[in-house]
Amino acid sequence: MKPITSLILSFLLLIIFLGFSRRAHAAGGNWQVLATIGVSAMHMQLLKNDRIVLFDRTDFGTSNLSLPNGNCVNNDCTAHSAEFVVQTKAFRPLTVLSDVWCSSGSMAPNGNLIQTGGFNSGERRVRVFQPCTGCDWTEVVDGLAVRRWYATNHVLPDGREIIIGGRGQFNYEFYPKTESTSNVYSLPFLSQTNDPGQENNLYPFVFLNPDGNLFIFANNRAILLDYGKNVVVKTYPQIPGGDPRSYPSTGSAVLLPLKNLMAPSVEAEVLVCGGAPKGSFVQANKGTFVEALNTCARIKITDPNPQWIVETMPQARVMGDMLLLPDSTVLLINGASSGVAGWEIGRNPVLNPVVYRPDNAVGSRFEQQNPTTIPRMYHSSALLVRDGRVIVGGSNPHDKYQFGSNVLFPTEFRLEAFSPEYLDAKYADLRPTIITPLNLAKIHYGRKLTVQFSLTGTLAMNSVLVTMVAPPFSTHSFSMNQRLLVLGAENVQKVGPTTYQAQVTTPTSVNLAPSGYYILYVVHQQIPSEGIFVHIY
């Protein structure tokens, strides 16, 4: 009897353990439809005034949002860009004068959106959007040296913008132009990663390394580039398996949060997730939709001998977006589980986001979240906003606007908000509220900064962090110029009945944090405050 009793007891304990395990990893987060804009959000950027500029392309046909005052561009009297106010859900039409289809961009140090390239009339354009009341797009006709379509932008430590690659462009250039930087610089790596007939190297993943060089990933491998000297200083190994992760076999990537910023050498890691097996683009165009990749690959790019570590996601994903959240986790959202990026060649939408916890042990890093009801396929985008929500928009896998019940994945004009679990009401007592600095405060490099905040619950002194996030430009499954810095927290102390303060040291180098606008958060027990914009210079 004893062995049987012991067996029954072990079985009951296993059931209890599995029950706790399921609760610990239960799906979290919730969804809300915010507005129907009338423009599909193929590209999005959050600006310092809490407005999102979004746009699709000018040759889709007429949109569902009219230009103001009866204005028309090339006989089209509808808007293909809009400004959305996060807090009020109000929106207004904007006027783009050239085709912005599959273009790129990032937010300049002064807070302007610098937006580059596109198709046909837009392929050499530079567009500027200034975040001010009633402002609209302005355009520089020949602002680029060559045509840029499916390129990637990044803000550099000196404040310039680098534009890398694009269809048929195995090179890079800078903006704004000077006499010494008006040239186009050859980058053979982009031709070496180009798969004939498939490409698999467009919209390369680009990150600024803490040493000031650029990490550039295309297809299934990466280099570290000294862009000033046009010298490859490191070549990284190919991702195990060799499957492509770049457009149209579109995965996504992030530079994981930068920590220990006062160390002599700051470590940096890159995480690449999803994509499609070799040959998927060819197969999809023949009507066979191969299952997407279900793996992520992670590499410490600052190591002398870096190696990829491969992890398995809860589900396969292609055309997904990856966002850094203020609690230093990564959100995987949008996309499909088979096919590739392109006109009507993706299938099986992935409706569940996934949270990746980079500090957890391998095997316990992924947590599946509650699903949306809206497929977000090709030409979707996603952005973090100050209150911690993620705004999701776009999805139009057709070469025109298409609607109706007989259309597979109709053109999507709705914006949604995904609220991660840290925004649940049950965490209200743990959620800090920043008192000072005020929103849009100016901060300097390498200085002590006192952050004061309130809390209704009990503060865990050793569980306070301050993080700083660069708002990215989102399109085609990549968030350009995205980075998160963990500033830590020193001398956390109580200064009032429900008021506390912490001291942090601001980033010491433009290589860690190029000058510009960032969202600063106080995070307590993994629950972030609403953020404030700060301008570091």
Rg from Cα: 23 Å
Number of strands: 42
So what's the CATH class of the largest domain?
Mainly Beta
What kind of oligomer do you see?
A: single chain
Q: Quick one: biggest sheet?
A: 6 strands, antiparallel
The CATH superfamily of the largest domain is Galactose oxidase/kelch, beta-propeller
Strand content: 35-45%
Q: Could you report the average pLDDT, rounded to the nearest whole number?
A: 95
Q: Give the N-to-C terminal Cα separation.
A: 75 Å
Task: Walk me through the topology.
Blueprint: H1 2-24, E1 30-36, E2 43-46, E3 51-55, E4 81-85, E5 91-94, E6 104-107, E7 113-116, E8 126-129, E9 138-140, E10 152-155, E11 161-164, E12 171-175, E13 185-186, H2 188-192, E14 205-208, E15 214-218, E16 221-226, E17 231-235, E18 252-255, E19 269-273, H3 280-285, E20 295-300, E21 309-312, E22 321-324, E23 330-333, E24 336-339, E25 346-349, E26 354-356, E27 366-368, E28 380-384, E29 390-394, E30 414-419, E31 433-436, E32 441-443, E33 448-454, E34 464-470, E35 473-475, E36 478-480, E37 483-488, E38 490-494, E39 499-505, E40 516-524, E41 527-528, E42 532-536
Parallel strand pairs: 32-42
Antiparallel strand pairs: 1-30, 2-3, 2-35, 3-4, 4-5, 6-7, 7-8, 8-9, 10-11, 11-12, 12-13, 14-15, 15-16, 16-17, 18-19, 19-20, 20-21, 22-23, 23-26, 24-25, 26-27, 28-29, 29-30, 31-33, 33-39, 34-37, 34-40, 35-36, 38-39, 40-41, 40-42
Organism: Pyrus ussuriensis x Pyrus communis
Pfam families: Glyoxal_oxid_N, GO-like_E_set
Keywords: Signal
